[in-house]
Design brief:
A six-stranded antiparallel sheet has the order 2-3-4-1-5-6, covered by helices on one side. It is an alpha+beta fold. It is built from eight helices and six strands; from the N terminus they run E-E-E-E-H-E-E-H-H-H-H-H-H-H. Strand 2 and strand 3 form a beta hairpin.
């Protein structure tokens, strides 16, 4: 029998906002206490409580991954409470779980929320957007291997490459630095390279900025296409 579950995630964070907000049916709000704890809460329909948690997790990970991209900081979270709801909305039973951690140092603005909504919509339309957002939210995002993986997902498309979002000089320097152990050390994509490393390897921070810029332009491009399709269908 299908049941309704309310799943709450506790986000122990320094996110600041003026009032509660919702994204893709996930509600974000502070606790009623003075401990300044942020929660994310959503309801799902399922015949099984474990499946319900997985469904709720899937909804929240999309939004948190988009937040991680916006704030350039990986976000971690865990389920705090699962409640089975009666048809009248009252609680049939409640089960507490593990606390969560979400570390963000910036205020969430209306503009941020709008951007997160756009990204989560694109994640539903494009599997590569979801893949990249999940990579951005990984603790190892700022490594040569993960940055290169993101680069490959976007730049494999020849039509995208023709837009010259990255100059050929920057592209070659990024690739040679990421691949060569004498340029990027133990974090290099390869353990050995016959060719010589670049004379002046790209700094990791520069590579992070380069890939973030590439993602920005790519998302803007996809959102424009998505919006145009929406106009055509209306």
């Amino acid at each position: 029998m299908m049941r309704e579950y309310r799943v709450t995630f506790r986000l122990d964070s320094i996110i600041n906002f003026d009032e509660p907000f919702s994204i893709e049916d996930v509600n974000f709000f502070y606790s009623d206490n003075s401990d300044n704890v942020l929660y994310a809460q959503t309801t799902v329909q399922s015949e099984d409580i474990m499946v319900a948690q997985q469904l709720a997790w899937g909804k929240v990970i999309n939004i948190c991954s988009a937040m991680a991209y916006i704030f350039q900081y990986p976000l971690n979270f865990y389920i705090d409470k699962v409640e089975e709801l009666k048809p009248d909305g009252t609680i049939n039973f409640s089960m507490s779980s593990i606390e969560a951690s979400l570390y963000v140092r910036k205020r969430i603005s209306r503009s941020n929320i709008d951007d997160i909504i756009k990204i989560t919509k694109l994640m539903k339309q494009n599997a590569n957007v979801k893949k990249i957002m999940l990579l951005v939210n990984r603790p190892d995002f700022k490594t040569w291997v993960t940055l290169y993986r993101i680069y490959e997902i976007i730049d494999y498309d020849q039509d995208i490459r023709k837009k010259n979002w990255i100059t050929e000089k920057k592209r070659n320097l990024f690739k040679r630095t990421a691949n060569h152990p004498k340029a990027s050390g133990l974090d290099a994509r390869h353990g050995f390279q016959k060719e010589q490393p670049p004379d002046k390897p790209m700094e990791l921070n520069e590579a992070v900025e380069l890939i973030h810029g590439l993602i920005d332009k790519w998302l803007d491009y996809l959102w424009e296409k998505y919006s145009e399709q929406g106009k055509g269908e209306s």
